[in-house]
């Protein structure tokens, strides 16, 4: 059995919506959908550095900076799209072609950090592996690389890994997925969790995944030495990362037609997310957070969040923050909603604030929202028409 592509690039899309086939680089809607899709013109998620916000324009050909007094400090133009991302010290980094550079918050001047082998190597800092990685930006290509943080040289490369899962001092664990060509696109086949020795990157162990595991998006968390992940749509597995041996597989209780969509850690507890649709009032759909012990997976608490849709949750600043494709909401720890808003991209909670980009009335905007109250301030905006297709 093979799997259709789960939209990793749109990781916030609910899984029931995101399972669709990719052909020729376009998203093919389900047969039941005839609606016009809108590609909102928006700024990138801003990065806060030295009390200034650094972000890219909707076409990614400009790098901009505003201060918290809503003043445009500087902007730089490029002849090609650039890639902005956050480094290991929460600093802003920019990839221009094959060069990754530090950005000066004062002037926007670039200082090269390292150069990668190919301009198609899309560089990011992986908090899961605590190192720089790159993945091929081309649609049909796949090449995963671990990079030397000083030189950008590939310490290890593999065409088997789809995404990083976790790491220990001795091992790197990734999700390996078979890609099956179909015309101008591909779909996914057999998948496994594969661990590699850091010393020489030989394979240490491999654990196959069932066909219904939702590859290539696999909910998983690492609580040393245990890797907890979904096995199928409604079961959880606990794996000892040091040996690759499965300690436990447990069927979890989910609502009818529900599934386990995400796993998170809250202190020393595992939290898994599932959903119970309310067909009479979709805005009151229940999203259930189950708090469990590790490694026994014994539930000791449940919190219900009510919102039309939730794809991801995080525990930040004493609140529960939820995200979907174009929606962010804030809840108190017991589940009471504080606020929700339309939003395209955001920063983590920083000093009780979220810095965000959104699209409103043909305008790309950048702003800040106070987490405790939902009060927002727009710091910068540009008038841009939405592009329909």
Key traits:
389 residues; mainly beta; Thrombin, subunit H; four-stranded antiparallel beta sheet; 1 helix
Largest sheet: 4 strands, antiparallel
**Known CATH architecture of the domain at 219-306:** Beta Barrel
Mean pLDDT, nearest integer? 89
Strand order of the largest sheet: 4-5-6-7
As a percent range, the share of strand residues is: over 45%
Shape: globular
β-strand number: 36
CATH class bucket of the domain at 219-306: Mainly Beta
Cα(first) to Cα(last) distance is: 33 Å
Secondary structure layout plus pairing:
Layout: H1 15-18, E1 22-23, E2 26-27, E3 38-39, E4 47-49, E5 52-56, E6 62-67, E7 72-77, E8 83-86, E9 92-96, E10 99-103, E11 110-115, E12 121-126, E13 131-136, E14 144-147, E15 154-158, E16 161-167, E17 171-182, E18 185-197, E19 203-208, E20 220-223, E21 226-230, E22 235-240, E23 245-251, E24 262-266, E25 269-276, E26 286-292, E27 299-306, E28 312-316, E29 319-323, E30 327-331, E31 337-342, E32 345-346, E33 353-359, E34 363-370, E35 376-383, E36 387-388
Antiparallel strand pairs: 1-2, 3-36, 4-5, 5-6, 6-7, 8-9, 9-10, 10-11, 12-13, 13-14, 14-15, 16-17, 17-18, 18-19, 20-21, 21-22, 22-23, 24-25, 25-26, 26-27, 28-29, 29-30, 30-31, 32-33, 33-34, 34-35
């Amino acid at each position: 059995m093979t799997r259709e592509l789960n939209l990793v690039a749109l990781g916030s899309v609910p899984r029931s919506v995101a399972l669709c086939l990719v052909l020729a680089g376009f998203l093919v809607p389900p047969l039941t959908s005839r609606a016009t899709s809108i590609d909102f013109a928006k700024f990138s998620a801003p990065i806060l550095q030295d009390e200034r916000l650094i972000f890219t324009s909707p076409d990614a050909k400009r790098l901009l900076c505003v201060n918290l007094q809503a003043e445009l400090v500087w902007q730089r133009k490029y002849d090609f799209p650039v890639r902005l991302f956050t480094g290991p010290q929460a600093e802003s980094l920019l990839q221009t072609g094959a060069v990754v550079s530090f950005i000066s918050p004062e002037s926007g001047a670039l200082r090269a950090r390292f150069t990668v082998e190919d301009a198609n190597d899309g560089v990011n800092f992986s908090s899961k592996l605590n190192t720089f990685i790159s993945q091929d930006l081309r649609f049909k290509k796949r090449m995963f690389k671990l990079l030397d943080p000083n030189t950008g040289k590939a310490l290890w490369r593999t065409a088997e890994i789809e995404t990083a899962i976790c790491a220990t001092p001795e091992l790197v664990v990734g999700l390996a997925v078979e890609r099956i060509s179909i015309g101008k696109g591909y779909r996914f086949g057999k998948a496994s969790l594969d661990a590699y020795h850091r010393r020489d990157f030989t394979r240490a162990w491999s654990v196959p995944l069932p066909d219904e595991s939702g590859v290539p998006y696999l909910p998983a968390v690492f609580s040393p030495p245990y890797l907890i992940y979904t096995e199928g749509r409604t079961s959880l597995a606990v794996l000892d990362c040091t040996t690759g041996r499965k300690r436990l597989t447990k069927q979890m209780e989910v609502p009818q037609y529900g599934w386990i969509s995400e796993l998170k850690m809250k202190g020393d507890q595992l939290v898994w997310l599932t959903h119970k649709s309310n067909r009479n009032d979709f805005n009151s759909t229940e999203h259930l957070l189950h708090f469990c012990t590790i490694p026994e997976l014994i539930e000791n608490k449940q919190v219900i969040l009510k919102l039309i849709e939730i794809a991801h949750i995080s525990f930040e600043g004493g609140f529960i923050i939820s995200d979907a494709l174009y929606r962010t909401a804030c809840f108190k720890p017991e589940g009471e909603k504080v606020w929700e808003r339309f939003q395209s991209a955001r920063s983590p909670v920083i000093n009780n604030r979220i810095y965000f980009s959104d699209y409103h009335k043909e305008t790309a905007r950048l702003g800040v929202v106070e987490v405790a109250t939902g009060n927002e301030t727009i710091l910068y905006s540009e008038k841009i028409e939405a592009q329909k297709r």
